[in-house]
Amino acid sequence: MKNDSLKEQYRINERIRVREVRLVGDNVEQGVYPTSQALKMAEDQGLDLVEISPNAAPPVCRITDYQKFLYQQKKRQKEQKAKSVKVIVKEIRFGPQTDDHDYNFKLKHAKGFLEEGAKVKAYVFFKGRSILFKEQGEVLLLRFANDLEEYGKVEQLPVLEGKRMIIMLTPKKAAAAAAPKPAVSKPVVKKVIVTPKPKTEESE
Q1: Residues 119-147: pLDDT tens digits?
Q2: What positions does the domain Translation initiation factor 3 C-terminal occupy (predicted)?
Q3: 80: how many CB neighbours lie within 10 A of its CB?
Q4: Residues 6 or more apart in contact with residue 167 via CB below 8 angstroms
Q5: Which of 179, 157, 181 lies closest to 169 in space, CA to CA?
Q6: Does pTM top 0.85 for this prediction?
């Protein structure tokens, strides 16, 4: 069925009923020819006259093996489909005072998401007066980006949107393939890491 729908997209040989066509391709001298002459040229080569751009004036045709042409078009469509793979974004939510256990649990999940090729949108949600801790939230997100440096790079630095401070991480393509090789940090990540991690000192 798919092949039939592809066939319907292109007119070939006697189905091309315009007076003249523009020939392109490697096996002809490119230019505008009467359609009857273009058909004769295709026939002499044991090939087909395929209309590849019907809306041009005059329509553009190619002399080629039609079955081979369809195969190449199908292959091209597959490649384009593969390139336009849906980008998956996984969200990870923190509170402004997330404890280490919760942080490490979410960090582990984020590593898995990035290794699978998904983007990670991490955010700190500020409830009520906790918006006063927005700097603390920013430090948390930057620490998160730093800890995931081998797996993802920062696509968007922390920004405050309403009650949420968001950071976006995109997977490093080489992360899955690269084994013990140290990952090269992007300058943008290095900049963010300058902010010191919050430390609490207990005096004995």
Answers
A1: 999 999 888 776 676 788 888 999 999 99
A2: 89-172
A3: 9
A4: 121, 122, 123, 141, 142, 144, 145, 154, 156, 157, 158, 159
A5: 157
A6: no
